[in-house]
Amino acid sequence: MEYLIHILVISGIYVILTMSLNLIVGYTGLPALGHAAFSCIGAYTSALLTLRLGLSPWIGLIAGIFLAVITGLISSFPALRLKGDYLALATLGFNVIIYGIAKNWVELTRGPMGLPGIPSFSIFGLKLTETWQYLLLVLFFDILSFIFLWRIVDSPFGRLLKGIREDEKAIQMLGVNTVKYKVMVFMVGAGFAGLAGVLYAHYITFIDPSSFTIMESITILLMVIFGGMANLYGSIIGAVSLVVLPELLRFLGLPSSVAAPLKQMIYGLLLVVLMLKRPQGILGEYRFK
Amino acid sequence: MNLLTYSIISAAIYSLIALGFTLIYRTVKFFHLAHGGVYTAGTYAAYTTFMLLQKIGSDSLIFNLIIATLVGMLVAGVLGILIDRIVYYPLRKMFASDLILLLASFGVFVFIQNFIQLIYGAQIFTIRTWPVKEGHHILGAVITDVQIAIIITSFVVMLLLWLFVQNTKFGKAIRAVSDDPVGASVVGINPEKTIIIVFFIGSALAGLAGTLISLETNIEPSMGFNAILKGIIAAIIGGIGSFPGAVLGGFLLGFAENFGVWKIQAGWKDTIAFAILIIFLLFKPEGILGIKIKTEKD
User: Fold this and answer.
1) Domain B2-283 class, CATH top level
2) B59, CA 20 to 30 Å: which among A211, A226, B134, B249?
3) d(Cα B103, Cα A99) in Å, to the nearest integer?
């Protein structure tokens, strides 16, 4: 039971990552391949503030989101100039750089040794030590994120984003500064990824750079595409099913040296099959142009 | 100054990967990330062959290495063709976008890397079972026989590729299909046949690069990711689609990385490489040689 709740908590964190990435890639059509970089910023910011300065995780949460948003702003500079696969490559490169900093700036991050003992959240003096308590917290943030993102995509702003995705020139003809909107989308997406990173860090209580690799970013993108491009419900389905399904491998009694690569093989294969058969995903309405 | 030796070896390896990547990119016009998987597969094939040869008692080191390298190249080449036929060919027929091809390619890469990890395990292997000899001292740099062999082989292969592409009928067909597939088919060149040849040669180059570097460093299943990214960076900073550009980019990257970490930790190499990439993408996306073969789509 404990294990099941743990899987749900992880799913919940991925739901935030997937929905926010969907805003960038599905709704706005920007191929961002470095979402894990933003959750890395969020996780490390909050972990360092709570560990080194003894601040409350809630302050860490706010600071983590804030720094992730700033990082989103910085990373959106390539988005202003690049298109298509070049943008994909630049965001991927950005992820490698952030990962490199987390790994090599040993004085600050302890590098590959990671940061252990990150304190848990507490609400009104009650420390969240039980997994189910943490599940409630994550669910709360899931709902909050869903409402926030829903308000964005189901608004004139959201329709404008889809317009940029379908025909940027046409939207510019209407006198809209599309660059400004793309930057905003990157910042919002990054902020939510930062939130997910903070939640992850204080739940697992240990982070190291290996949680924020390119593979992680691709996994999140796979969840977006699988569930459906430009569909928030799809993102929930994508995140939960791709967290839960590989866990079934455990029940086959495979050792982790077999189960881990097997899970990645399934992800890789799924990505190929989706591109061949259904590039917009289960509930999606958009495929990469 | 071992830095110089390391720089030249990195440069040679990056150039080889970038050349194979460029050859393929010129014809199919998308980022073939699975090239990194092909590189790893070729290296492991070479490693396995070498170990088998030693086991059955073939004790000529040079002979074993040559056979292992050839097997590595062959396996890589065939794998390249298979990827193209199974994944890229159907996508091309559907007129899938470059991004869809890129993501499919990433999927293939992830699959291959983890397949290798499943078979061989995540631990590192080394092909270097021979006794280490002291290197030669040339101009203050220390260089071993193996390192000289790596450098010479790389440059000979690069030269051969250049002669092949510029002078042979196949080479002309490859250039024709890269520039204008429809036009090429009008004059009787089969584009699909040409693409198969391109995938074979390009992938074999990746297999060679992987095998050569395994003479210097350890091998592990995740080695391909860095390799393909460095290859792409080299190709982009040199000028994507250009063969001289790929070599130039390989050299710039190899030297920048190795001299860049002269005073700081070696772990920063990748960060330096990607910082260079992003600077180029922002300010000079057409690269140094600036041959723009990819047209703006909208």
Assistant:
1) mainly alpha
2) B134
3) 21
